[in-house]
Amino acid sequence: MSEIHELTGLELATAVRKREVSPSEVADHALERAERLDPSIGAFVTLTPDLAREQAAEAEILLRESRSGDELPPFLGVPCPVKDLAMVAGVPFRSGSAALGDFVAPADDGVVTLLRQAGTLMLGKTNTPEFGLPPYTEPDIAPPARTPWDTTRSAGGSSGGSAAAVAAGIAPIAHGSDGGGSIRIPASACGLVGLKPTRGRVSPGPYRPEGAGLASNGVLTRDVRDTAALLDVLSHQWPGDLFALAPPRTTFLDACEREPGQLRVGLLTTPVIVDDAPVDDACLAAVVRTARLLEDLGHLVEPAPVPFTAERWDSFEAIWSVLALSAPVPPEHEHLLLPLTRWLREKGRSVSGIDYASALGLIQTTTRETAATWAAYDVILSPTLAQLPAPVGSQRDDADPAADFAAQMAFTPWTSVWNLTGWPAVSVPLETAEADGVTLPVGVMLGGRHGTEETLLSLAAQLEAARPWRDRRPSTW
Questions:
Q1: What's the number of domains the chain is made of?
Q2: Which of 116, 121, 245, 406 has the fewest beta carbons under 10 Å from its own?
Q3: Which of 187, 268, 273 is nearest to 227 (CA)?
Q4: Of 255, 173, 168, 256, which Cα lies nearest the Cα of 219?
């Protein structure tokens, strides 16, 4: 058998079911790597070795009592840390902020319940920026999250800690969430697969409301099949869910085994939310090479128009600032917030009720117009990011939060389109680029129509087979 950390989540689950390795051995291996590697990458804010070993012991009882491997949870004995924007019962919950103090979660969030039921081992809580707001992970309560490919550069955000843990081979899978690109951004920066599901595919329930519906829970993985299998785990409906989607024809994992058929792909290289956002040549070259690969695979590729004017994105900004304001910060702790968070919350206070309602309405109108503009395409192909992974500290600007926010927009001029519409999108690590003598990952993004995760996963699996990335590993591996 390969080394434990070289296996994907599904491969490791198979090894556990076949008794080739025990859950306790897996837990010890992952925890040793976490303790050794984390000081250089900043993946974790809290390690939970006792909880991971307790879950491993429970997994071994299930193995002993099982008559058939088919009875066992799909990811039994597989490490899966949880981003610190989700609650894990009995574990500190700080959301990247000093303002929450020493709060300990009283219960598991729904996605954590599902990950537990799937048999995963909770290694710890992963690093995230304050309330998950920016696309870099540099909170004051923890060291920055760094991409293992070049530890002078950011792992992205806001699921930066999760991405760093997976890219460094600490865990094969990790929980993340995406409100404006927060799974896909670190997936690109760390050379991983990152899928933002369709709005309603992964419920925020049973404790959290849907709100404006911009954000979704998901995962960071090293291959497409793990992403698909975990979407099967997480696409669970809780009573009272506001959004609901029909389940896949069979499973999302099965979609990876099916050919996607000939698809019409729209190639989008013009930034959407910032008219003049500079785009690195390496990011453009990666998406152009991917377009040629798609043509070689029999798909039809043609240029796609920008779906709406950059000014339309102002509705996202209004809602984003209100979301920042809605974070449960005790008034006496407001001074502990970072300048960016305070600036966003102040903007949120200036949004009136009618402003907020108008912003929601404009998002819905924009979604209809985008659907009409892209009606001819099954998939939209674009760069994930406009730039290579950013040097740590280069984006955070405490002295000028407005400039910080503007730089975030220029760095991510495509990702939030899919949060506005609520449609699915996945970043895949098809390409690399050389910068300062270091090889860096470059993600490309595939976006689909409402509810078309099966199409995206089938296409992503086809691309992975045609241009495999499994053997590409950072030097920290």
A1: 1
A2: 406
A3: 187
A4: 173
Residues with active-site annotation? 83, 158, 182
**Host H or E run for residue 383:** strand 379-383
Residue 476, domain member (yes or no):
no
pLDDT (average), residues 426-451: 98
Structural domain range at position 15: 4-466
Q: How many CB atoms lie within 10 A of CB 11?
A: 18
Close Cβ partners of 361 (under 8 Å, ≥ 6 residues apart): none
pTM recorded for the entire structure = 0.98
Residue 282 lies in a domain: yes
CA distance 449 to 447: 7
For residue 168, is it within any domain? yes
Tokens 């090889």 correspond to: 439
In the structure, what pLDDT confidence band is assigned to residue 67 with cuts at 50, 70 and 90? confident
In this prediction, residues 317-326 reach a mean pLDDT of 96
Q: Is residue 475 part of a domain?
A: no
The number of residues making up the chain comes to 477
Q: Which residue is listed with tokens 């968070």?
A: 341
pLDDT tens digit sequence for 249-278? 999 999 999 999 999 999 999 999 999 999
Q: Tell me what the mean pLDDT of segment 32-61 comes to.
A: 98
